[in-house]
Every structure is written in C-alpha cells, then in structure tokens.
Amino acid sequence: MKQEKLLYLETFGCQMNVSDSEKIVALLKGIGYGETSEAAQADLILLNTCSIRATAENRMYGHLGKFKSLKKRKPELIIGVGGCVAQQEGEQLLRKAPFVNLVFGTHNLQLLPEMVRAAAAGKRRIETTFIDNEERFDLFPITGAEEGGVTRFVTVMQGCDNFCSYCIVPYVRGREISRKAEKVVQEIAQLAAAGVTEVTLLGQNVNSYDLKSPGEPDFPELLHMVAQIEGIKRLRFTTSHPKDISERLISCFAEIPKLAPHIHLPAQSGSDRILAAMNRGYTRAQYLEKIAALKSACPGIQITGDIIVGFPGEDEAAFEDTLSLVEEVQYADLFSFIYSPRPGTKAAELPDDARRAEKQPRLERLQERQRQVTLGRNQSMVGTVQQVLVEGPSTSGEELFGRTGGNRGTIMMGERSLAGRVVDVRIIEGLQTLLRGEIINA
Ligand code: 5AD
Ligand code: SF4
Question: Which of the listed residues 57, 58, 239, 306 should we mutate to test ligand 1's pocket, taking the one with most ligand atoms within 8 A of CB?
C-alpha cells in the first residue's frame, strides 16, 4: 500500500481562517495527505496566515524562517503560504522567502490539490485571483459532518464592503458575498444529524447578509430558519457591525429561544471624532442606543467587544471617551489592540502622531479596568444557575468544559458522556477567565 503523505498545517488569526483550514485538510485528504502535528515529519507544510495587525504578519515570517532549515535537510519538502498575508503579498512573498513553493490567496483554496501536485513536480505556483460570486461557496464538499463534535462554525457570508479606514480585511478577503440560505440550512441539518448541537453563523459582517434577489431571506429571517432545524439547541452569530444591527435583528433575541444571549459588537472607539476618522458609520450615542436596545430585548445579554487604542489623532480626551464607553457598556469581555498601520488602507496615510510610549500605557489602563469589570461580573454570577452546553473534557482532562448561554467558559465535574447536552449548573466561583460550577440537573 502506498504510504500516506503528511501535512503540517498552522493556522493564524480569526475563525474564518480556522474554517478555511478545515477545508484545506479535507481537500488534501482527497489527494492522500494525512495530518501531523510535527513539522519535521511533514512532506507538506502550509501556513494559513493573518494580516490584521503587523504583529500577526511578523509572527508568520518568524515561523516561516524555522521551516527553511527543514527544507535544507529535506529538499523535496513542499512549503506553501495561504490566507491573508499571501493574498496581500502575492509575488513579493515568493521573493522574500525563496524556499516557498506555493502561494494561495483567500479565494483559491480549491486549487490546492493541483498546486501541490505541480509543486511536487518542481513548479512554483501562485494564485491570488478573487472569485466574486457566491459559487465559491460550492467549490468545496460540505466538510466536518463526519467529525461531528458539539459546536461548529458555519459560514454564511464572506468579505467586507465597509472599508473601516484601519482595516485590511476588505483588501484581503474581497467584497461581501452571501451564501444561499438553502445551502446554509443544508449544511447545518447535516451537522445536526451528525450530533452537532450548537452552530455559530460566521461572516466578517453577518448583519449585512443579503442575497440581493427578491424573496431571499435577510439575516433575521435566516436566523429563524436555522432555529427550526431539529437537533440544534443553540445558535450564535459573529461578527456584527453596530451600524447594521437592525431593530428586527435585536428582536430576534426576544423571539428565538435558541438564540444564545450573547453578542460580539465591536465599538472600536468611544470618541465621535475617532469613529468618524475610522469610517465606522455610527456615533458613540448610536452605539450606546443599540446596546440599550439589546439589553432591553434580552435582559442579561452578555456583550463583548473590540477596541483599537492609539488610532491616529487619538489624544488623551478621545481615549477618556473610550474608557467611559467601556465603563458604560459593562462588557463581559473585551479584546483590545494597539492600532497597527496596514499597507494600502486609508488610515495608513494619516500621520500616526500618538507615540508608542503613549499607546502602550493607554492599552494597559483599558485592559486593567476591563479585567476588574470582567472579574466583578464573573463573581456576581456566583449562586446563579446557568444553562451550560457541555463541550467535552476540560484542558486538565479531569473536569468538563462548557459555555453558558452568555458564552462564559465554565468548568465543572461530570461524566464525559454529557458532551453535547445542556445542563443546569450552579456557579460556585467566578474567576478572571472562567466560571466554576456544579451540575445540579443533568
Ligand atoms: N490595528 C489594530 N487593530 C485592528 N483591528 C482591525 N484592524 C486593526 C488594525 N489595523 C482589530 C479591530 C477588529 C479586530 C478583529 O481587530 O478591533 O474588530
Ligand atoms: Fe474590517 Fe470594518 Fe469590515 Fe470589520 S467591518 S472586517 S473592521 S472593514
């Protein structure tokens, strides 16, 4: 029997990349590659990259450097780079890293089997053409059903048309394209039949899901359709843009019992001046109105967000506006980043006047404040009973890990056979990043 070849795949960045990596594994399985977690064992090394901030991009080049020596020892080793850095850099990447055999963009995964074969025959290949129609969702077989699991991400749209001035996503992921509702429903029904109980509808900007033809559902309607699929107990979606979250979408939290009480709604800044410079399309007051409407439609909803610190023009007063917004929203959790100029974006042309020496302490102040809020919120849950979807064993292997409806990670003692079940858990301890609880009704 012919021996299986081995693929070592490293994934950086967001959930869309994780989802693309699942497709890559399935496609390459089709041409005889199994996966290995040891780069030194591999016949094919692929990096699925992220370019959202310079740090992510630099990390990728660091990793790539390590593989150079492997290639010296094993000249037939094929090394490929895909994802957002590959899309952005294209030819330049081949020049910067001459030992790389193939470069594939964010719309070109389906070409990988052919590209790998070509690389094995000694050809260097690069493909970064965008496919700007919804057919690109059909280029892959539906993957993952065979693996089952408890919770899965399902792509409903890709790309972004918003052009926030700091963001590279519209350049590396292309225009917004929505996937046909019937395909989304078909994939989720298949996952549900394989035992999956929770799905998260995924897209760069799910609120603007739109098939642009009469009679097709919009995002709130899609949520109602998915909620009807038998076997699915819990439904989530990410990521939302504040300017596109409609009253109808907010009402879904009241109307659809399966829709989990959590939303990730990035504000990016609390200053109107900075929000305008970011081209976000909403003011601080409008953002806070949406938050108030969500809290009123769904009391107890957990809100998470993203903040960029040190955007060009951010002075102390603008930063204080961000701090006060964060205080007002009371996020369950907050992801915050120092602004990183990205090549080709509008903001990269602005004078970046705030010095790093100012940005770093601002980030630390924000993160310290949020840590207190998160801990306080987690502690205030002690004594409450939460519905926890058990995902499987905890990292230590001795307990179970699951998530509350509000998406708080929870650990508790219990049988592994509870994976996939929603159990009642009394919270006994609120830690910084986790809740600890005991199952009271399985
Ligand atoms: N610099 C810093 N953070 C950024 N993000 C996006 N682009 C940049 C950038 N150029 C952050 C935003 C976004 C999250 C995914 O990454 O907060 O919501
Ligand atoms: Fe980037 Fe803005 Fe699009 Fe989000 S909405 S992906 S931040 S351009």
Answer: 306
Grouping H, G, I as helix, E, B as strand and the rest as coil, residue 175 is: coil
Average pLDDT over the chain, rounded to whole? 94
Rounded to a whole number, what is the largest CA-CA distance in the chain?
A: 69
Cβ-defined contacts of 208-212 (< 8 Å, 24+): 208/157, 208/161, 208/176, 208/241, 208/244, 209/156, 209/157, 209/178, 210/176, 210/178, 211/134, 211/178, 211/180, 211/181, 212/178
Domains of the chain: 5-127 (3.40.50.12160), 132-260 (3.30.750.210), 385-441 (2.40.50.140)
* Span 292-338, pLDDT tens digits: 999 999 999 999 999 999 999 999 999 999 999 999 999 999 999 99
Instruction: Report which of 236, 306, 283 is spatially closest to residue 52, judged by C-alpha positions.
Output: 306
Q: Over the stretch 413-427, which tens digit does the pLDDT of each residue have?
A: 999 999 999 999 999
Read off the pLDDT of residues 236-266 as tens digits, 9 standing for 90 and up: 999 999 999 999 999 999 999 999 999 999 9
- Cβ(164) to ligand 1 under 6 A? no
DSSP 347: G
Question: Identity (one letter) of the amino acid at 372?
Answer: Q
Q: Is the CB of 407 under 6 A from ligand 2?
A: no
What is the number of other CB atoms lying within 10 angstroms of the CB of residue 213? 7
Q: Which helix (H) or strand (E) holds 336?
A: strand 333-338
Task: Dig out the tokens for 160 from the structure.
Answer: 């972004």
Q: Is residue 341 pLDDT above 90, yes or no?
A: yes
CA atoms within 13 A on the CB side of 155: 26
Q: Give tens-digit pLDDT for 138-165.
A: 777 666 556 678 999 999 999 999 999 9
Nearest CA-CA partner of 412 in 194, 15, 334, 396: 396
Report the distance separating Cα 76 and Cα 22, nearest Å. 25
205 Cβ closer than 6 Å to some ligand 2 atom:
yes
Which pairing describes strands 385-393 and 400-404: parallel, antiparallel, or unpaired?
A: antiparallel
3-state DSSP assignment of residue 65: helix
Residue written as tokens 């690069």? 126
